[in-house]
Amino acid sequence: MVLNKIKKRNLITHTNPESIISEQFRTIRTNIQFINGDKKSNKLLITSPGKEEGKSTTAANIAVSMAQQGEKVLLIDGNLRNPSIHSTFETLNVSGLTDVLMGEAIFEEAVYSSKIENLDILTSGAISSNPAELLASQMMKQLLQKVSPLYETILIDSPSVLEVTDPKIIANLCDGVVLVVRQDKTNIENAFESKKVLEYAKAQIVGVILNEKT
């Protein structure tokens, strides 16, 4: 397991790639690559114990950092309850993951080619009344099977582990999980409880990222 410290916030790897924080994200990127090694494991879930701990911002910056290195990356907003990836990248959220899972769009129609080279984005799509059921559906498994050969890395942002069941469902479909905690917000009990919950879901925790208070 790898532990990294970062400060927040926004898409700093794109707006200020020479900053110290951007370098920290490059370190995280490299550590993830070392952990994967030669294994064909390219689906990673980014989650946190609770709300407002920086997981979505972290997921976005790791995705940008990987794309900057020349990797073909897909960032999926798997938070079907309170999505934010579309706001981070300043794009619309008209068609996305929910539309694909409900059979109302195909992946090629819903995926968004970001202004950052090598980085594609699949937003959440419309807010769903049954997100857990959609994520646990055969369509979700088929989608990940379809896109996995197309990208070197697939990052999935999800709701918080201790908030809803969605992250456990997604984690079971991924090759690894990165847990984001925040120095001034996450208590140690919630961090350990999240670890237990993910392990019970048979998820492999490959790293922990500590957000520092600014």
Automatic annotation (TrEMBL):
Molecular function per GO: ATP binding; identical protein binding; non-membrane spanning protein tyrosine kinase activity
The protein, known as: non-specific protein-tyrosine kinase
CDD domains named in the record: BY-kinase
Record's keyword terms, sorted: ATP-binding, Kinase, Nucleotide-binding, Transferase, Tyrosine-protein kinase
Coiled-coil residue spans: none
Taxonomic lineage from the root: Bacteria, Bacillati, Bacillota, Bacilli, Bacillales
AAA domain mapped to chain residues: 54-182
GO cellular component terms listed in the entry, alphabetical order: plasma membrane
EC number of the protein: 2.7.10.2
Catalytic reaction annotation: L-tyrosyl-[protein] + ATP = O-phospho-L-tyrosyl-[protein] + ADP + H(+)
Transmembrane regions: none
EC category name: transferase
Family recorded in the similarity comment: Belongs to the CpsD/CapB family.
